[in-house]
Specification:
Length: 554
């Protein structure tokens, strides 16, 4: 009888040990330094399951969205990922192969962590060297991430020798708490759908245009989209939500030819509303109603320069369409060349956050063309939590000579033929710190001997003193050959899209220069832009599209 009692007790003890649960706490470090107030990683594990989470997630205080990982060890090591998007929304996916895909090399090297002898396993992930230190002394498996879940209990994860996740405590617990433990998930989707929704939940998307046509036609205006200049300009009012001051803002444009075969100037812009009169007034009432700029060349240029009472547009992005991408992809077949089906232009415009966030704004897109098919574009803003390096509390539009209303009465900017060039006066109400001029410039026209193909120095003067001088020039245009299916081809084997140009290439963005102007005192100041514009040749002429926005703090 005594023997039977001891046997039953031994069996019960064995079951208890087999079912023993553990809570392991981990901390992250980089180059030996930990981050203060970091939410610790937690791993709960027993013979039936492993849960990878954080302390804040277990207390329902983690910021949304957050992920939790589960290994169902009773069902062939099924691996679940669960994202909690809000108190009422979650999404899960199941991967039955992930834990078998990781190829690990086991070594004989050992070390002791928290009193447990650990062995080392090695692998490589995306060219990163990974070391996993695991122990088999606890009789359970688990790890602080996907790697090494079936090795044993991973107590330290090391990436490239300097980024670590290290266990700081191992505790025996009676069981894994019910609100943490593996459970049945109501909404389980495939891995691609899961990853896509998780990725998109981490930032804010503000859609503007979807597959919208920009072509030369009779003007038509819908309830939501305004069309100007015979359809070559489209504008829409959108609401940008209130976001954290250090967020990063990106503009993304997708462009396809819908019949126009040529490289065209394009611009994504926003209407500035800091003064009584704005550019939208001229678009609606006629460009001749806007203030004119004149520098003595005999022409008047409407809506290009800031005056007392009027602000030109903010140019968010200058882009150039390639030669016929998508629509003309079947016109020329070349061995070892596959034409792209569209162009994606994406640019950080975080410096404009202060004039966008928590406001209704007008955003427009212009592509200069005279084609009935024209182009199709999709445009959106995306706003991401982060720490932008281009924040500015004040954004002052100064000039924009890109004639977005080309087909609506706004002439080409040929005024650099005069020594005065472009000159604008502005006034600061207060002293300004860390003033920058966000300057975009591209040279055009004149065919082979024009400013498009001849390098020209740009000189920027502040209060009659030279502040910055450079020669804008792009020599990398050949990199974008696969965006240009109907670019002209020459006898020497070059394509027109290969040729170097004055700061632009077919199928690219022209990035801004951020010109440091220092600290400026309150009062009036003057900026002048000088470019030695080339002389006309017959019916052809040169011109320059320049835009300038003042960025500063006060």
């Amino acid at each position: 009888m005594k023997y039977c009692f001891l046997l039953v007790a031994a069996l019960l003890l064995g079951q208890q040990n087999f079912a023993q649960s553990y809570l392991i706490t981990y901390e992250r470090s980089y180059n030996g330094k930990t981050t203060a107030d970091e939410d610790p990683l937690l791993v709960y594990s027993n013979a039936d399951q492993t849960v990878v989470t954080t302390r804040a997630a277990t207390q329902s205080s983690a910021p949304y969205p957050y992920e939790t990982y589960y290994v169902d060890r009773k069902n062939k090591d099924h691996y679940f990922k669960l994202t909690t998007f809000s108190a009422s929304k979650e999404l899960a996916t199941l991967d039955t192969l992930l834990l078998k895909r990781n190829s690990l090399t086991l070594t004989t090297e050992t070390k002791t962590i928290l009193g447990y002898v650990c062995k080392k396993a090695q692998t490589s992930v995306n060219s990163n060297t990974i070391e996993l230190w695991y122990t088999n002394e606890l009789g359970v498996k688990g790890a602080p991430n996907e790697l090494g879940q079936n090795l044993g209990l991973v107590l330290e994860y090391v990436r490239n020798g300097n980024s670590k996740i290290t266990a700081t405590a191992v505790e025996k617990i009676k069981k894994i708490p019910e609100h943490v433990a593996l459970r049945r998930f109501e909404n389980v989707v495939d891995g691609l759908s899961y990853q896509d929704e998780l990725w998109k939940s981490r930032f804010i998307r503000v859609p503007v245009f979807t597959n919208e046509q920009i072509r030369f036609s009779e003007q038509t205006t819908s309830d939501s989209i305004l069309r100007f200049a015979h359809g070559t300009v489209i504008v829409k009012k959108v609401k940008v939500p209130k976001v954290a001051a250090n967020s990063q803002v990106f503009v993304q444009l997708i462009e396809k030819s819908n019949g126009d075969a040529y490289d065209r100037t394009g611009s994504v812009f926003m209407i500035a509303t800091d003064q009584a009169q704005n550019f939208l007034d001229g678009m609606q009432n006629g460009m001749q109603t806007l203030p004119m700029y004149s520098n003595g060349d005999g022409e008047n240029y409407p809506g290009m320069v800031r005056t007392d009472g009027f602000s030109p547009i903010y140019e968010l992005m200058r882009f150039f369409t390639p030669f016929g991408v998508a629509h003309f992809n079947d016109r020329l077949t070349l061995k070892d060349k596959t034409w792209q089906d569209s162009v994606i232009y994406r640019q950080d415009i975080s410096e404009f956050l202060s004039v966008m966030a928590d406001q209704e704004i007008y955003i427009g897109t212009y592509i200069g063309n005279y084609d009935q098919g024209g182009h199709k574009v999709s445009l959106e803003l995306s706003i991401h939590p982060g720490a932008s390096q281009q924040q500015a509390t004040k954004v002052l539009p100064l000039f924009n000579s890109t004639n977005v209303m080309e087909m609506g009465g706004q002439t080409y900017a040929r005024f650099f033929s005069e020594e005065k060039g472009l000159e604008v006066e502005f006034e600061l109400a207060d002293d300004a710190d860390n003033v920058q001029l966000r300057y975009i410039t591209t040279g055009h026209g004149g065919w082979g001997n024009g400013d498009e193909f001849v390098p020209k120095a740009n000189s920027i003067y502040l209060d009659d003193q030279l502040a910055f001088q450079f020669t804008p020039w792009r020599t990398d245009c050949g990199s974008y050959r696969l965006y240009n299916p109907v670019s002209g081809n020459f006898q020497n084997g070059l394509s027109s899209s290969d040729l170097s140009r004055s700061n632009w290439c077919p199928g690219t963005i022209t990035t801004p220069n951020y010109i440091a102007l220092g600290d400026l005192k309150a009062g009036k100041h003057r900026i002048r832009v000088h470019i030695p514009q080339g002389e006309p040749e017959g019916s052809s002429f040169s011109f320059w599209n320049v835009s300038g926005v003042l960025l500063y703090n006060k």
